[in-house]
Amino acid sequence: MTVVGDDDTASTASPGDSLFDRLRRGDAAAVARALSAIETGGPQADVVRGRLQSLDGAARVVGFSGPPGVGKSTLVNAYIDELRSQARSVAVLAVDPSSPVTGGAVLGDRTRMGNHTSDPGVFIRSVASRGHLGGLALSIPSMLDVLDAAGFDDIVLEAVGAGQSEVEISHFADTTVILSAPGLGDDVQAIKAGILEVADVLVVNKADLPGADETRRHLEAMLELRDTVTSPPVLPVVALHGNGIGAMTQAIDQNHAAQDASCGPQRRASEALRQAAIAELTRRIAADPELDRLGAAIHRGDINLADAVGALINRAASPDERNQP
Amino acid sequence: MSTPLRVLVTKIGFDGHDRGSRLVAAFLRDAGHEVVYTPPWQEISAVVTLALQEDVDVIGVSSLATDHLIVPDLMEALCDAGLDHVEVIVGGIVPDNEIPLLTDAGVARVFGPGSSREDIVDGVEELGRSAQQRKLSRGGFEA
Questions:
Q1: Which residue, A90, B44, B57, B140, has most beta carbons within 10 Å?
Q2: A window 161-190, beta carbon within 8 A of B
Q3: Burial of residue B137, with CB atoms counted within 10 A of its CB: 0-12 exposed, 13-18 middle, 19 or more buried
Q4: Chain A partners of B140 at a C-beta cutoff of 8 Å?
Q5: What is the pLDDT of residues A74-84, one digit of tens each?
Q6: Per CATH, which fold does A19-271 belong to?
Q7: Would you report the helix, strand and coil content of chain A in percent, each value rounded to 5?
Q8: Domains and their CATH numbers in chain B
Q9: ipTM greater than cut 0.90
């Protein structure tokens, strides 16, 4: 945009005030730039990550997941209302899927959080999953570190509309809230393995609709069958009208109180390392010509699967030796 | 594939005709870009906040019922917020004699009726890349 007039009047930075200093003060433009740097990757991402190391803030991370259309964004909106009424600053990362075909995405989660756009105590960022499976995006751990360093009291993580196996959110959130709603499946769905098992708090949203009590009973019956000491509470909520949000917030607070607060950032670092290592290993193996040769050898019966796996991983671990005969 | 552009597709003012903006959002998605989509009736201050938090490269404003007349106010607000690297395009119904009002205010392109998918996607990509360059040239994080 070439606006008539002075081009540089707009800068909010004072001299000697670096972009990272602004980030630490929670300046929205600097936070947004850092998040983009992380997403884009490359030298700027390395710089930001380097400066974020051991800069833990005190943010609590709450994750929300559940099937598409269950009301995640609406519930997040209501939860922001609640946090703001306690004068806590909130950052939201709302993940939507990228197209597996074109890589494009329409990010519409914040459509349902519109009434917080004018509130300077709320920062909302839409994130495209960019091909990452698991319900989040590969950049999420570092993006959480950015928001933590920016000093937000609470970070809300909204996952892609999840099926049954997108449990990644529970690795990054201090408290994981899983949503269900009436009409999404019978009691057999409730006993299947999956996201219900990683819930710290279970919410039955749209609890004013017929069948809500039945959904709640199915979930409670599922919990009774599980061999665990503590069960997550099952809470009826009508996110659209804010009903039940107080009880949900209390349950989230109780779950936080029961945890060691210092574990979060370190757990994020370990999980980010695990994911990055797997991604790098996958990339190296996919690019290794030996993959097809070993595949053919398995097919002929010359080598067994386990030995071939060992050979591929060894090659991926020391790529410099590949060029040797 | 190169880094996707981030594009805000929105409507300001009182016009609620959002078929065009949804269509353009889908065009850009299918071209591999990340579109932050809003419903109609956004305030100018909300568009500025969205553009800032989402760090978009291009803002597309759809206007079918004279709301393009407040786009110059949007341009000023973006500039005040330090977002003068962002490219703004307008699509929809803009009378020929009012196009200079927009371009003089800094709007990069106006896409009228009959604009093809290719016109829009190519235009957004060209503008978006230059917006990204401009942002980079203003310096980043230092080690």
A1: B57
A2: none
A3: exposed
A4: 19, 33, 37, 44, 47
A5: 999 999 999 99
A6: Rossmann fold (3.40.50)
A7: 50, 15, 40
A8: 6-137 (3.40.50.280)
A9: yes
Q: How far is CA A230 from CA A62, A84, A225, A233, in A?
A: 19, 30, 12, 9
pLDDT in tens, B2-61: 789 999 999 999 999 999 999 999 999 999 999 999 999 999 999 999 999 999 999 999
CA distance B60 to B31: 15
State pLDDT tens for residues B62-104.
999 999 999 999 999 999 999 999 999 999 999 999 999 999 9
Domain residue spans of chain A: 19-271, 272-323
| Chain A contact present for B88, CB below 8 A | yes
Nearest chain B alpha carbon to A45:
B141
φ, ψ (nearest 5 deg) of residue B65: -145, 60
What one-character-per-residue DSSP string does B63-87 give? ESSSGGGGHHHHHHHHHHTT-TTSE
Rounded to the nearest integer, the mean pLDDT of chain A is: 86
Query: A137 CB contacts (<8 Å, ≥6 apart)?
Result: A39, A95, A127, A128, A129, A130
Residues 34-73 of A with CB under 8 A from B: 34-37, 40, 44, 47-48, 50-51
Of the listed ranges A117-121, A183-187, B40-44, the least confidently predicted one is A183-187
